[in-house]
Amino acid sequence: MTGTVPLNAYLILSAVLFVIGVAGVLIRRNALVIFMAIELMLNAVNLTFVAFSRFLHSMDGQIIVLFVMAVAAAEVAVGLAIIIALHRNKESVNVDEINLLKG
Amino acid sequence: MEWLLFVPLAAMALVTAVLVIVLRNPVYCALSLVGTFFALSGIYLLLQAQFIAVVQVIVYAGAIMVLFLFVVMLLDLGHELPVWLQRDRPRLLIGAGVVVLLLLELVIPIGSWTARAPQGSSGSESVGGVGNTQLVGRLLFTDFLVPFEITSIILLIAIIGAMVLARR
Amino acid sequence: MPEGAFFIIMVTKIVVVFGLMLLSVSYLTWVERKVIGDIQVRLGPMRVGPHGLLQPIADGLKLLFKEEIVPHAADRTLYLLAPAIALIPAFISFAVIPFGDQVRFFGQTIDLVITDVNIGLLYVFGVASLGVYGIVLGGWASNNKYALLGGLRSSAQMISYELSLGLSVIGVVMLSQSLSLVEIVDAQARTWFIVLQPIGFLIFLICAVAETNRAPFDLPEAETELVAGFHVEYGSMKFAMYFMAEYANMITVSAMTTTLFLGGWRGPWLPPVVWFLIKLYLLIFLFIWLRSTLPRFRYDQLMRFGWKVLLPIALGNIMITAVFVALR
What we know:
The complex is a heterotrimer of chains A (103), B (168) and C (328). Chain A has 103 residues and is an all-alpha fold. Chain A has one domain (7-90): Orthogonal Bundle (Helix Hairpins), CATH 1.10.287. In chain A, 75% of the residues lie in helices and 0% in strands. Helices cover 74% and strands 0% of the residues of chain B.
């Protein structure tokens, strides 16, 4: 195992992390853990951006990653506020039980 | 030499990511996610994006995950049922199917081609030339000034929104 | 230089710095008790060894031999890990702080800094933001509502003051044009930054005191308030680790203030390391002095001060500094 790590390795790692995030969103019922899986997906995309930034010798990828991080931070703040408000009303954060508009 | 660093970091990222979606105690899930962020920060260092690596630790592992932990601890949620005891079979099967399909569709094409020689674009020097942070700073205030200002507005809106939503 | 020599030098530096940190942390307890005793016109520890000099050793032995109790309903893994998580960031942030110029040893020139990272300042902030986890997890894992509340309060305080801490340093970064701590010290060759950035220095110092949970910002762990806060359920060695973490944080933050504002190891006549230690000790003395003099802030006063007073002043400082740098 000599030489540099090829771009494919980073992209495959990023793809697998993204798929794990998708699996988390589909399988878990706790709203907070679903949120964490979404953060995992965002990070997988960040990895793709940074990997391409290095291999195409362009700084654009890293700048975009900065914006993604800022927007992710904003999203987490608002999302957690929503979850807290939800918990206050219903005493549960299980997404199966949040179905007031159903039927 | 790079492989020597990449393989453990990638393994740590994958293992902690799987633990995030598998563990039942949400506090442990949050801590596994912190581990994933650390592994990713190490990989960013490998890719010579030092500024992004440190910002990842400061913003994601040091601020966002602390916020997650706060909410998890304040809401004091119990443990979820393990996957095999949950009763919603159709959802789980569809979920597993989608995941396997997505995995095959993403990994097989990426694994089959090899990257061509890199081309420069957007008029930026090779990373590591002037100094990573200086480059990022320079670009943020010249080419990417408008997104930068809009991001600050987004953050302001998020602050106000979070305060209004969480207020009693 | 040859690879072998590089590793040996690096390992020696790490061992020396780590060992000195551990020694300083334990003797800092003695220094604190003596100084507070002096300020309160009493003697402090006098029995154990001449002038109580063996007191830290006696304390360490006592804590080592105490029974290790884990509360029954506590989260065992986190309960045991939390003090370690609190201790580690305090020590590893010392990896980028320069404590001397250069030393010639057997023909090799050794820089007296463990590693000169070009984002050294950000590294220290990243590591400092990890220190919050030790407190939050310690409060949670104890399965005790006082511990949880104390832990959450303390970490909310630390996060709030981290903001102003970071902002107060931007003036220094603008003046020295670099994030590397070695270059920041080099940029203070003619004037120390405390002269050029007095407001930044004050804000940094205040936020540093708040970050390390020291008086007058120590409400979350006060003995008389909130039943000792997040470490109420901790005893013996784990409690000792929390205290070591607090003192190690104090040393680290004093070292950072020295590097950023007081010219690091710069000074006439005396060797650089001695200057560094003198300035370090002066700041630690200031910390101890503050503790024994000022009353505690109430929690809402603390948060109001951090958000409504320090943050705008730090932002104003950045703008004023930016104007001056642009006009230069």
